[in-house]
Structure formats: structure tokens, C-alpha cells
Design goal:
Blueprint: E1 7-15, E2 24-32, E3 35-41, E4 53-56, E5 61-64, E6 66-71, H1 90-106, E7 109-114, H2 121-130, E8 138-140, E9 145-148, E10 168-171, H3 174-186, E11 191-195, H4 215-227, E12 231-236, H5 239-248, E13 252-255, H6 261-269, E14 274-275, H7 279-287, H8 295-317, H9 340-349, H10 353-368, E15 385-388, E16 405-410, E17 413-416
Parallel strand pairs: 1-4, 1-5, 6-7, 7-8, 9-10, 9-11, 11-12, 12-13, 13-14
Antiparallel strand pairs: 1-2, 2-3, 5-15, 15-16, 16-17
Bound molecules: zinc ion.
């Protein structure tokens, strides 16, 4: 991805650097050749050359570009399981993924970690973004997702002939888990996404207290993935599934919904980050019935919402790490609403705006394995920045309103916003 050339000076803004440090009023950020040279008080800023580019933050907020830590660019208006398999051909899904990637960047998300992909599209989407063929977040790519046969992604009866081949590699036993990982590695996946547990979406056959992969299958997936230096994450709601995943060596947990103190201890011992993706639950409760969601499923989402909020508070209070990502791409939780997750964590879960922004920037970059390059506004890092017209700490929902963005920058290049 191309970076800006020469020196850029950003002034007249309040800096939130993403580390969790207190904001700096009247800050100056200086960029050189796409990287951050200085970020701090105006008084200490170095002199810039007379031909430097000047960006006026107009009294607004300067912060790191946001990181969507559970991104499904290939999911689009999903209302039932079949929509993740037979709804569109690969040709159209590829185009949709490119549209969603552009939208995410325009929404201030300069980086994203894929949470699973139809048809291995995310690997190639990442390449197209990195080569500046299309706009989008810097991606960490997952491939198709691994699930135990009969599990959360395989509960439709046989006569429906829904193989889920577009999205899922179904496994029976550890050896098939190893085989699935080898296939994903060969095709370029950086993250191996799995389904260790069930979900409220399938209450009859795989509810959110159910396990969908055995410990032996999970351990085999992890050992094979780590052999190839790939990372493993999984859809983990049930308490026992969370413990199995942590004992098997998972690198991240998606959701981490129902956790007891033993699960928390296992999590903290290995400092494994969790991406709760919780606004999805509220969206399911509020809008799911309009898309035909049965009441039993809505009730399951209510239990998931409460359990997930409790676990998220517990994790952060105990010193654990949370990423902000929202599983967008469902009919009731569409692409473009990404920042609703952040507002939700302030208003419903009770985190402070500064805590949420640290989760949405620094921790997101760490989950991607790129914490040394992006995620905070510090010297030496890539200038992936968001400049917002207004005080984001006073009203975090400003991040939901793209019309308030002055600039969305990647490597110092303004890609979106009013100054683009
Ligand atoms: Zn997901």
C-alpha cells in the first residue's frame, strides 16, 4: 500500500493516541513518508519544512484508525444459515466483499481481522487492498471456517443438501482437523477460524451451551496451525468450550460469552484476547423478529447478551484484553454499522469511551499481530489515523456518523472523509 511522501503536519486537534493515556489538547502530529514522526503537545513539536502539507483538525479529535477485529467482508444480508452457502455465486460474493471493504474504510476502519471467509475470498481481498487495486482496511485474512460435523454450521437435515462448502470445512475427528488446516495454510489463510461451541441461532440442535468440536479436534487444529505459524480463533460461547479452547492453545476467542472464574484464570494466564461482538445480540433482539427470527432464538440472544456483557466487564477489570469487532453482515446487523459496537460498549456494557477506543485500536492491532506497526499514534508507526469533527470522548457515537469524518488516513494518505 502506497504511503504519503514528504512531511505532513496535523494541528488544532485533541489527540487520543490509542495507548489508553489521557488525551492531549491542542496536539500536533507530524508525519514523514507515511509514518508518525511526532505526536504530542504543540509546544514540543519540531519545526517542519516550509513545503510541509498542513491538515487542520478544526478543534476535533485525532485518533488511530479503528480496527474491526471480527470482520466478515463476504457476509451480506445473512438471515439464515443457507445464506452463507447457496445465496450467491462466488463471482458476486467477491464483488460484495470489495464493496464492504471500501465501506469499512470509509467508516474509519483502517485495519481489520477477518473472522472467516466464503470461498477463500479474504486472502485475495487482502492482496487487492495491499496493491491499491481497491480501497479497504489492511486485512488479516481468515479462510473458510472449520466446524465439527453436526455442529453450529451443520444443523440442517440431510435432505436439504446444504453442504456449506462455500464457507465451512466440516470435520470428524482430529485427523480431519489437521487436513483442514493444511488446506487453509496452502491457500494463504493467516487465521484459522473454528466453531468449538454452539449458538443461540440454532437452539434445537446446537444451542449456545453445546460443544461442536471435541478437545482432541481443537488441539489437533492448534498444533497443525502453530506448526505453520498460523493463529487459531474460535466461536466460543459455552463455558466448557472456552476452557477447551484455552487449554488447546487458541490464540484468540470470539465472543467468550459464558465464563466462570476458572475460564478467566486460563484466559489471563496466557493473555488471550477476546472479541465479544456483542452489539450483534442487541441487534438480533431488536430487529431479528422482523426477519422471521423465532422467539426461542430471540430469548437465546437475550441470555447471550447478558452473559457476554458480564464476561466482557470481568475480563477488562481483571486486566485482560478485548478487541472490538461486530460480526456485521447479517440482515439485522448490516455492514456500515461497525461503530455501533463502540457506542454499545459505552452505553450498555459500561466501559469508558477511552477504554473502548483502546480496545478498538491498540488491542485490535495486537490481535492482528501488527501492534508494532499500527493501532496507536506513536513515533515510528504507520500514519493510519482518523480525524473527527467533534469530541469523541464526550460522544462516542460521533464515530457512527461518517459525515463527521475529516480524514481517514492510511500511511498518511487521506482515503476518505471531507478532506479526501
Ligand atoms: Zn463471525
Amino acid at each position: 500500500m502506497k504511503t504519503s511522501q514528504g512531511v505532513t503536519r496535523i494541528t488544532n486537534g485533541r489527540l487520543i493516541d490509542g495507548t489508553g493515556a489521557a488525551p492531549i489538547g491542542n496536539a500536533v502530529v507530524i508525519l514523514k513518508d507515511g509514518k508518525i514522526l511526532y505526536a504530542g503537545a504543540a509546544a514540543g513539536a519540531p519545526i517542519v519544512p516550509s513545503d510541509a502539507t498542513h491538515v487542520d483538525a478544526r478543534g476535533g479529535t485525532i485518533l488511530p484508525g479503528l480496527v474491526e477485529a471480527h470482520f466478515h467482508p463476504t457476509y451480506f444480508n445473512v438471515a439464515e444459515l443457507a445464506d452463507l452457502d447457496v445465496k450467491y455465486p462466488v463471482e458476486f460474493v467477491t464483488i460484495l466483499a470489495s464493496v464492504n471493504a471500501k465501506l469499512a474504510l470509509e467508516c474509519g476502519y483502517t485495519a481489520a481481522r477477518s473472522g472467516g471467509s466464503l470461498h477463500n475470498i479474504d486472502v485475495w481481498l487482502k492482496k487487492a487492498i495491499e496493491e491499491d487495486l481497491i480501497p479497504g482496511p489492511r486485512l488479516a485474512a481468515s479462510g473458510r471456517e472449520i466446524c465439527g460435523a453436526g455442529g453450529l454450521m451443520d444443523w440442517n437435515p440431510e435432505h436439504m443438501k446444504l453442504g456449506m462448502e462455500g464457507l465451512i470445512l466440516l470435520i470428524n475427528g482430529p485427523e480431519e482437523g489437521r487436513k483442514a488446516v493444511r488446506k487453509l495454510v496452502k491457500d494463504g489463510a493467516e487465521w484459522i477460524k473454528t466453531y468449538p461451541t454452539g449458538d443461540a441461532a440454532a437452539p434445537d440442535s446446537a444451542d449456545h451451551h453445546t460443544l461442536c468440536m471435541t478437545f482432541e479436534e481443537m488441539a489437533a487444529v492448534v498444533s497443525e496451525a502453530h506448526n505453520f505459524r498460523r493463529k487459531v480463533t474460535g466461536h466460543c460461547r459455552a463455558n466448557q468450550g472456552i476452557k477447551n479452547a484455552l487449554r488447546a492453545g487458541f490464540d484468540c476467542l470470539e465472543h467468550g460469552t459464558f465464563m466462570d472464574s476458572e475460564a478467566l484464570d486460563l484466559l489471563l494466564t496466557r493473555d488471550v484476547p477476546v472479541v465479544p461482538a456483542l452489539y450483534f445480540e442487541l441487534a438480533s433482539i431488536e430487529r431479528g423478529p422482523g426477519f422471521g427470527m423465532p422467539q426461542a432464538v430471540v430469548d437465546g440472544h437475550k441470555e447471550t447478551l447478558e452473559g457476554g456483557a458480564e464476561s466482557a466487564r470481568m475480563i477488562l477489570k481483571a486486566g485482560g484484553r478485548l478487541g472490538m469487532g461486530g460480526d456485521y453482515g447479517f440482515a439485522w446487523n448490516p455492514h456500515g454499522d461497525y461503530a455501533k459496537e463502540l457506542t454499545f460498549f459505552v452505553n450498555y456494557v459500561g466501559l469508558t469511551p477511552l477504554e473502548v477506543l483502546t480496545c478498538a485500536t491498540k488491542t485490535g492491532a495486537e490481535i492482528m499481530g501488527r501492534g508494532h506497526e499500527i493501532g496507536t499514534v506513536e513515533p515510528g508507526k504507520l500514519a493510519d489515523l482518523l480525524i473527527v469533527d467533534g469530541d469523541v470522548l464526550a460522544d462516542i457515537s460521533l464515530l457512527e456518523d461518517r459525515s463527521r469524518f475529516l480524514a481517514v488516513m492510511q500511511g498518511g494518505v487521506i482515503k476518505a472523509g471531507r478532506l479526501a
